[in-house]
Amino acid sequence: MKAVLMTAAGNPEVLQIGEVPTPTVLQATDLLVRLQAAGVNPIDTKLRQRGTFYPDRMPAILGCDGAGIVEAVGAAVQKFQPGDAVYFCNGGIGGHPGNYAEWAIVNEAFAARKPTSISFVEAAAAPLVLITAWEALYDRANLQAGQTALIHAGAGGVGHVAIQLAKLQGATVCTTVSTPEKADFVRQLGADHVIFYKTADFVQETLEWTGGLGVDVTFDTVGRDLFGKSFAATQIYGDIVTILEPDPTTNWKVARTRNQRISFELMLTPMLQELVEEQKAQAKILEQCARLIDQGQLKIHVGQTFPLRDAAAAHRVLEAGGVTGKLVLVVE
Hints:
Number of helices: 11
Shape: globular
């Protein structure tokens, strides 16, 4: 089969299209999926830059997100049959091969039925960001109806889903964006207040918006110094959830004096630690999100697509920043 192979850590040019053996069903619970599309996520670019979690297994096939059609199943598979359309977040971190390829093997317990109302391209864009935003807002921060939430980078991959999930929970949402076009985009998703972070102090604006209290929940999808600055925009006893590793220079004093709860969200933990039950739980999240998508309550925005062979170009675009929604590789 054709696959994008990462031959070494480095710049996007280390991603080259090549031929590898087509995988086959080996375990009784395996699905063989003919991939139609693969999502491109920041974790892909980070692993490409610094190396995967399994540096002894090279070349690697990146790509955690996939969507496609079940072609064959193991003897013990019960949920799916050949011809079913599925989407999932599995592989792509250096151990199990990822989805920058024509075919993939995935345990049936880790896959969910693709929402019927969207394309394979949209479905491939969805799993990692859906699980990340769901776990961050619902599981880590325990966001409740009537609360306020600040979502950084609301037009981004995780951010645009987080806005919608927060609104579905009954929260009031403010978010940061860089351009008027992105402001229009996040308002269409339900954002109640928009902050242009390049020209305004998001802390001051958030405090003004909340009557000086700060928000109940802040979701940091950016990191760097933004994480520490967010403490002052979050109320006493509030929650801050980040998907990035805090900068070593972070000053924790405000968070401590405001008695805030800090949580980390790394949706890859179940895959990294081989936690089967937790991976099953993430598939359940995808099942619930599929229902929301098919009910018209949740949308996935694809900003740009690339043919599989142009994975390097997709990485360059993602690393340049400013992407609205998600990037997706289309398997021809």
